[in-house]
């Protein structure tokens, strides 16, 4: 369930952020339609794709954005690589369990998978639970819960492979957190850069009365530093 949740979160991360931030930054998006750079627009773009906001603010100097974009690529590729590896290993240990122990792993919980790797058979497992008085840990003595390993070596190989799957998938939440953090950091950085650029943008104005009070046209340009 956790594994599926992570995949769903990764898939929805970009899609949901677009709809959510469209409502937050609607005024900024309207300004963007007039070809104006806005901090909100820069933040939104970096949430959708890290680095995009920096490119939006200044496409000639967005080195900071390139770092965020490269980091996103590394994190996504790492997530996909680990996910593919864990799925491959899971298929491997399930195939081994079925062929060497006769176990049916369909619809079995984690406790069953662990027990299968620690005991040679169902009867051995249940006897251990009875001795320890762990009544709630007993599995029913029915065909769908029966197993008996042909070789101890196969059981150990199954156990090691299953543990590799757990260790691999335990890294996935960290990668998702890093992806979210990278997007937020990129968004904040792009927002501040856009804000700074707007503050330093020259202001121009025209008036029909100059500062001396005479009629005429006066032009003023102000640079903020």
Summary of the model, kept short:
The chain has 225 residues and is mainly α. The chain is 67% helix and 7% strand.
List the helices and strands and how they pair.
Elements (H helix, E strand, L loop, with lengths): L1 H23 L1 H7 L6 H10 L3 H6 L5 H39 L8 H9 L3 H10 L20 H19 L1 H28 L3 E7 L5 E8 L3
Helix pairs in contact: 1-9, 3-9, 5-8, 5-9, 6-8
Key traits:
225 residues, mainly alpha, two-stranded antiparallel ribbon, 2 strands, disordered C terminus, rod-shaped
Your description of this structure?
A hairpin with a 5-residue loop joins strand 1 and strand 2. Residues 14-34 and 221-225 have low confidence and may be disordered. It contains 9 helices and 2 strands. A two-stranded antiparallel ribbon has the order 1-2. The two termini are 54 Å apart. It has 225 residues and is mostly helical. Helix 1 packs parallel to helix 9, helix 3 (39-48) packs antiparallel against helix 9 (172-199) and helix 5 runs antiparallel to helix 9 (172-199).
């Amino acid at each position: 369930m956790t594994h599926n949740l992570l995949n769903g979160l990764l898939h929805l991360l970009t899609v949901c952020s677009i709809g959510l931030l469209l409502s937050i930054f609607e005024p900024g998006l309207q300004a963007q339609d007039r070809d104006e750079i806005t901090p909100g627009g820069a933040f939104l773009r970096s949430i959708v794709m890290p680095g995009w906001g920096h490119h939006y603010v200044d496409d000639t100097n967005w080195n900071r954005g390139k770092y965020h974009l490269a980091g996103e690529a590394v994190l996504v590729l790492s997530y996909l690589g680990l996910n593919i590896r864990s799925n491959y290993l899971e298929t491997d240990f399930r195939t081994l369990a079925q062929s060497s122990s006769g176990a049916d792993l369909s619809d079995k919980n984690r406790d069953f998978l662990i027990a299968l790797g620690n005991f040679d058979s169902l009867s051995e497992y249940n006897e251990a639970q009875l001795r320890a008085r762990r009544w709630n840990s007993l599995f029913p003595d029915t065909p769908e819960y029966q197993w008996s390993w042909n070789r101890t070596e196969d059981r150990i190989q199954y156990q090691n492979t299953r543990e590799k799957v757990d260790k691999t998938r335990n890294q996935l939440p960290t990668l998702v957190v890093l992806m979210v953090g990278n997007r937020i950091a990129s968004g904040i950085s792009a927002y501040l850069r856009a804000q700074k650029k707007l503050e330093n943008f020259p202001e121009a104005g025209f008036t029909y009365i100059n500062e001396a009070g005479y009629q005429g046209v006066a032009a003023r340009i102000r640079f903020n530093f």
